[in-house]
Design a protein that fits this description.
This protein has 289 residues and is α+β, with helices and mostly antiparallel strands. The protein has 2 domains: 184 residues, Vaccinia Virus protein VP39 (Rossmann fold, 3-Layer(aba) Sandwich), CATH 3.40.50; 95 residues, Avidin-like (Lipocalin, Beta Barrel), CATH 2.40.128. Helices cover 25% and strands 39% of the residues. It has 6 helices and 15 strands. The strands form 2 sheets. Strands 8-9-10-11-12-13-14-15 form an 8-stranded antiparallel beta barrel. Strand 2, helix 5 and strand 3 form a beta-alpha-beta unit. Helix 3 packs across helix 4. The chain is elongated. The structure holds S-adenosylmethionine. The site of S-adenosylmethionine has 25 residues, from helix 4 and strand 2.
């Protein structure tokens, strides 16, 4: 979605919101307007998340249940709807019955801001940005690393999507335009802090700084080279590339590994004028900072 279209949609949704709910105080109570995601857009959202039979899809503010029902019907997933409007929950239950997926779907009258949904493996949301921002800490710290979050149209402040996709809307609302955008994030594990790994040449000491899924890495290797690298987390997978800085010439490095609690196991590929080599490295957490 282009910037102009996005702001028109925010204005349209906010207009409905303020017309129906009235005040900033209500906004603080966490309500958002009922506008549906077009069916073909909902389908792309589920596909972008790679939804499959092992998933539990939680739609936050689920309206008439269409995303949860499509997850069960088209992807064999289980679905949970959290919706504050009891009338819409009733409609969703009837829709799920009619679609034959009542056994794989659950519909709860609930305020998403006061609910835990940490059992989700896919979270979907078509919510205004301020509401997504209020949820972003719950996404980062209460969802399991690797959980996919897909939004329709809107994003969160600061946390850049891992992927965005433009979708042509099959039956567009004249106020919302013929195209929309969907966004995907994968919840990163937390690696901020100091890490140590033994190697034949001595101990690697790395300090990792983390900004959502992005990491900056600096430190030293056992044989005295300085490490300067940057990369990203994809759930519990970590990858960063950079350089080992030494007086006699730099070495290119690329690390790939897997984070499991206080351990990172992986391998670093080193490439210098004298050739290439691969070194397995098993880091343990030295401290959190
Ligand atoms: C824009 S609609 C999206 C409906 C559906 N997810 C879709 O994409 O078609 C937002 C929905 O969020 C619900 N909602 C708003 N605030 C909520 C809250 N705090 N907790 C749960 N549901 C909420 C509204 O009732 C509305 O049905």
């Amino acid at each position: 979605m282009k910037r102009g279209q996005a702001s028109r949609l925010v204005a349209a949704l906010a207009g409905i919101w303020f017309a129906t709910q009235g005040s900033a105080q209500d906004e603080g109570a966490g309500r958002a307007p009922f506008v549906t995601t077009p069916t073909n857009v909902a389908e792309r959202m589920l596909a972008l998340a790679g939804t499959g039979p092992a998933d539990l899809v939680v739609d936050l503010g689920s309206g008439d249940g269409r995303i949860v029902i499509a997850a069960a019907l088209e992807h064999g997933a289980r679905g949970l709807e959290l919706e504050i409007d009891p009338g819409l929950v009733e409609v969703s239950r009837r829709n799920a019955q009619a679609a034959g997926v009542a056994d794989r779907t659950e519909f709860r009258v609930a305020d998403m801001l006061a609910s835990r949904f940490s059992e989700a493996s896919v979270v979907t949301a078509y919510l205004l940005p301020w509401l997504l921002d209020r949820l972003s800490n719950a996404f980062l710290y209460h969802l399991r690393p690797g959980t996919r979050i897909v939004t329709h149209a809107f994003t969160m402040t600061g946390w850049q999507p891992d992927r965005s996709e433009t979708v042509v809307v099959h039956a567009p609302d004249p106020k919302a335009g013929a195209e929309t955008t969907i966004h995907l994030w994968t919840v990163p594990t937390q690696v901020r802090g100091d890490w140590r790994a033994a190697s034949a040449a001595g101990e690697w000491r790395l300090r990792m700084r983390q900004n959502f899924q992005l990491v900056d890495v600096e430190g030293s290797t056992g044989d005295g080279a300085r490490v300067a690298a940057a990369g990203r987390l994809d759930g519990t997978r970590i990858a960063f590339t950079g350089r080992l800085l030494v007086a006699g010439g730099d070495t290119r490095m690329a690390f790939q590994g897997h984070v499991a609690g206080d351990a990172i196991e992986g391998k670093v590929e080193l490439e210098s004028a004298s050739g290439r080599r691969t070194l397995p490295l098993a880091f343990g957490r030295a401290s959190a900072s």
